[in-house]
Design a protein that fits this description.
Layout lengths: L6 H11 L60 E3 L7 E7 L29 E7 L3 E10 L10 H41 L5 E3 H8 L3 H5 L12 H17 L21 E6 H11 L15 E3 L11 H4 L2 E3 L17 E3 L2 E7 L3 E15 L4 E14 L5 E5 L3 E5 L4 H8 L4 H4 L3 E6 L3 E4 L12 E4 L4
Parallel strand pairs: 1-11, 5-13, 6-7
Antiparallel strand pairs: 2-3, 4-12, 6-10, 8-9, 10-13, 11-12, 14-17, 15-16, 15-17
Length: 462
């Protein structure tokens, strides 16, 4: 063992601590703190001898088996599994239109249609099928004989093997959790791709639209995410999220892409909020508010990111979804022509639990004895179906300078809804979603009106 003399160093540190002198250069902590090192070759044993004759190797006095506490929280995604059959079939039934009741109009015989009595009225039925699965495996080799020289007892070696098992389980948990996050990320990306303006809730735009004085307050900020420190914005955002939780409980076709009538009860709702928004509420709203019971959100799950934190855990990375939505299919052309969704400042998503699901999740472990090297090979298998259904209620909450207007079947419908003069005059105020690094591309107004294409506008043109 090497002993480092630190007497003089402590004198300097002491003077700095009590305020007698001030350190003006960076402290060299290598003489105080040890970060440990990994032995990879015999040449690294230089300082691992006793300090008497320098011939006897220092012994291990304590073995620390460093193991992580697996405290990963899975997302509240709907899960279901079955053993036989692979296809998940979701059947929807829509009721027929309501008819007039002629019970109290017997006097109007002429209005009766005798043929209608026996005319069948069938419900409108549709079925959606899901038959796609993911699978992966982790392989590890466990020795029977080779490790015994590194430990002093069978129990100590058993603890080491348990540590290997723990690391495998942790890797599996992280892998599976990352797939859950990507299931949610894909759901959000699909909504931006479809452009349903009822499902894409730009809280910044709505705040500027609805609250007098909001535009003046936003003039003090340089970028959309700056409003996360504004108590008045946070109060408004809480109100809107709470309202949408009520909206999707009523029968509606607005918040799904398939035109089906959906209802999502309280117990069927899943609400995920980015931790930045969650902590902003605690810091900039609840801590300054006298009656939090009137404004406090509950019943949601806080997530640290949508896909990953990157190398820095910066907000710009954690709030971003950068993906090719699954509906774009596999790459079939070169260069790749699929649309890339790259959206930042995503604060949360509210959806029916059936919009995001994991089915047929199976985990198995197989092993084989390898006699020629006296080891056992283990394979940890995991497979599951990760499902999104945008025909269910889905609402995405985000901040952006662009907000969704909707799509219109023709120019007349566009003029009626927006109050525009005509497309040639006002078309340059609108954008289309093109994905990639650009995301939004401006129209000129000189092109043909883009029928049934989602339109977007910039808050600068409000």
């Amino acid at each position: 063992m090497e002993y480092k003399q630190i007497g003089q160093i402590l004198n300097t540190v002491f003077d700095d601590v009590i305020g007698e002198t001030e350190q003006t250069v960076a402290e060299d902590l290598s003489n105080i703190v040890e970060v440990g090192h990994t032995i990879t070759s015999s040449s690294q044993w230089g300082n691992q001898f006793e300090n008497y004759v320098k011939k006897l190797i220092d012994r291990v006095g304590k073995v620390i088996f460093r193991q992580n506490d697996l405290n990963l929280m899975h997302l509240p995604i709907f899960k279901d599994s079955w053993e036989f059959g692979s296809i998940a079939e979701k059947i929807r039934v829509e009721a027929p239109p309501t008819k007039e009741d002629q019970t109290f109009e017997l006097w109007d015989i002429a209005s009766y249609d005798p043929s209608d009595i026996f005319t069948p009225v069938l419900p409108e039925v549709s079925a959606k099928f899901f038959n796609n699965s993911t699978t992966f495996a982790i392989k590890i080799t466990i020795p029977k004989r080779q490790l015994k020289s590194a430990f002093t007892s069978a129990s100590e070696m058993s603890r080491f093997i348990s540590l290997i098992e723990n690391s495998i389980q942790q890797k599996l948990a992280i892998d599976l959790l990352s797939l859950e996050y990507r299931t949610e990320a894909n759901l959000i990306a699909e909504k931006f791709l479809s452009g349903n303006n009822h499902s894409l809730v730009n809280l910044l735009y709505e705040w500027l639209r609805d609250v007098p004085g909001a535009a003046a307050a936003y003039g003090n900020y340089t970028k959309p995410e700056d409003v996360l420190t504004d108590p008045f914005f946070l109060r408004y955002a809480n109100m809107r999220i709470g309202m949408y939780r009520d909206f999707i409980k009523k029968p509606s076709v607005l918040y799904a892409d398939g035109g089906y009538i959906n209802t999502t009860s309280d117990k069927q709702q899943t609400l995920l909020l980015l931790t930045d928004f969650d902590k902003a509420l605690d810091t900039w709203l609840y801590s300054m508010n006298r009656h939090n019971d009137f404004v406090e959100l509950d019943g949601y799950t806080s997530v640290p990111y949508w896909m990953s934190g990157g190398e820095t855990d910066e907000y710009s990375k954690r709030s971003t979804i950068h993906a090719i939505p699954a509906s774009q299919g596999h790459q079939t052309a070169t260069p790749d022509t699929r649309i890339v969704v790259k959206m930042s400042n995503i604060l949360g998503v509210l959806h029916d639990e059936r919009a995001s699901a994991i089915t047929c999740e199976h985990k198995d472990v197989e092993s084989i004895n390898v006699p020629n090297n006296r080891t056992i090979n283990y394979w940890y298998f995991a497979d599951a179906n990760y499902i999104n259904d945008t025909d269910e209620n889905v609402v995405v909450f985000y901040l952006s300078e662009y907000y969704a207007i909707g799509s219109f079947e023709d120019e007349a419908a566009f003029i009626a809804a927006t109050g525009s003069t005509d497309w040639a005059t006002d078309g340059s105020k609108y954008y289309q979603f093109v994905g990639g690094d650009t995301q939004y591309s401006a129209y000129t107004g000189s092109e043909t009106f883009p029928a049934d294409t989602p339109l977007y506008a910039n808050i600068a043109n409000m």
